């Protein structure tokens, strides 16, 4: 474990042990730079600089070699509240199993550029990722996408079907059309104002309920600190604005209608206690109750995607790879071994 992570964990345990809410408020919020300066990743961070939408941007990424190469490459695509570093356990397991592993931070996220003006679309993020992989000489990766990264992976497979060996979707969002089900319109300004209020406490509460099926462990704390520090640093406004643009992209670009067109071998890995639905707290109670039922959504996606295989984790939530990394990694490596 990195020394920084040990420090973060110690601070987290101390914070959780505080006797009352007033004491908790006195604990300083973490603060990192607009590109997560000050937060260490578990592997060396590299940079890909490229032009996009009339500006020069840089995409941070991890490129971890296989211990004993099997000639295959896994590309890990993070979710909305995640970064390349949150794949640490999967990167180590895949590398040990013979895979080269590439994990980018998408534009607008984590250690990558936060453009003030950018049209965020899944097609654009897929094109950015494709350009990175072309530069690295990766031609037919196994795409593994979690949450929003699952939506991105699906769009990538639709754009470049001959350039994807396999597709793995881990509790992807976009398995239902929230707007069609009754989510009211949410403006960019509304998303922006919500993001400006993000704190370590709000992140921890949300992740406990959604990512970890109601069970919090101190080992999750570094990732709360990572996200809270990014949203509390000197780039707070830029981070919040790009986050608002991303939320708008997620809600307005549902991918489920194109699932029957996916022509890539697909593995769905679904934590059954997930209840994720972007913006559901803004929906009327009767609509809110109908959203985020992943046991049904996962099965429906498996039926819609030709030849898809489904692995279910009965006791896990939105982030099965983090709740039970050992069990998840075993299922993942067994799943992608099937060609």
Helices, strands, pairings?
Layout: H1 3-16, H2 21-25, E1 46-52, E2 55-64, E3 73-77, H3 88-96, E4 100-104, H4 122-135, E5 142-146, H5 148-159, E6 166-170, H6 178-181, H7 188-196, H8 200-210, H9 221-232, H10 236-252, E7 266-271, H11 285-288, H12 294-304, E8 309-313, H13 320-323, H14 325-337
What does this structure look like?
With 339 residues, this protein is α/β, with parallel strands linked by helices. The protein has one domain: Alpha/Beta hydrolase fold, catalytic domain (Rossmann fold), CATH 3.40.50.1820. It is 41% helix and 14% strand. Strands 1-2-4-3-5-6-7-8 form an eight-stranded mixed sheet, sandwiched between helices. A hairpin with a 2-residue loop joins strand 1 and strand 2. The chain is globular and about 45 Å long. The relative contact order is 0.15.
